[in-house]
Amino acid sequence: xxxxxxxxxxxxxxxxxxxxxxxxxxxxxxxxxxxxxxxxxxxxxxxxxxxxxxxxxxxxxxxxxxxxxxxxxxxxxxxxxxxxxxxxxxxxxxxxxxxxxxxxxxxxxxxxxxxxxxxxxxxxxxxxxxxxxxxxxxxxxxxxxxxxxxxxxxxxxxxxxxxxxxxxxxxxxxxxxxxxxxxxxxxxxxxxxxxxxxxxxxxxxxxxxxxxxxxxxxxxxxxxxxxxxxxxxxxxxxxxxxxxxxxxxxxx
Length: 252
Prior knowledge:
Blueprint: H1 2-8, E1 11-15, H2 20-31, E2 35-42, H3 48-61, E3 65-69, H4 76-79, H5 85-103, E4 109-110, H6 124-130, H7 136-139, H8 144-153, H9 179-194, E5 201-206, E6 212-217, H10 223-228, H11 230-237, E7 243-246
Parallel strand pairs: 1-2, 1-4, 2-3, 6-7
Antiparallel strand pairs: 5-6
């Protein structure tokens, strides 16, 4: 049981993203009486709202939060965007968190991976194993549905928060990642959030660098809204993208 893990590990650091899983882990550890601190790493691959969400949640449950910064694009294995980019990025972030956590006297680092996470589909999980990071939610068989249910029972604001992957996942493998490209994607997604769209992705499609198109992946229930707000969407996105299309085949 998760409670048993906390009884055996009374002082833990948590690699914190602000998402559903790591937020519940942070809450559960704190609720169990652990001496727990959250560590959030801000890089070019996280939109600003993720940092704001992380700060707000940690404050709401009274858990101290350390925010570090990391220039992940300085690593060629990340910026060149190879198939195992996620591994190299995760390895760099975890290494930095370990530095911060050890400086604070922590010897146990946990993350929010859950029982649904498939290692064969998530290169970043290799980094967790290599760096000795514990995944108590996964190790105790808690699925994403379980975590959402437990979060709702606990009254956590994150219980229905949509899953959100880093901005680099919007860029096709092999296309070099730059700060400029990431800013374009973040501006586009912020604009759509502002229009009320939810649980979507803006995928970048090269048209011949430095020209790109934006392919929108929206839940099917929001397609009609996108059609009626076509001009508003184009006005917001065409300063950064030559073309804006709606992908009718792939859901976010």
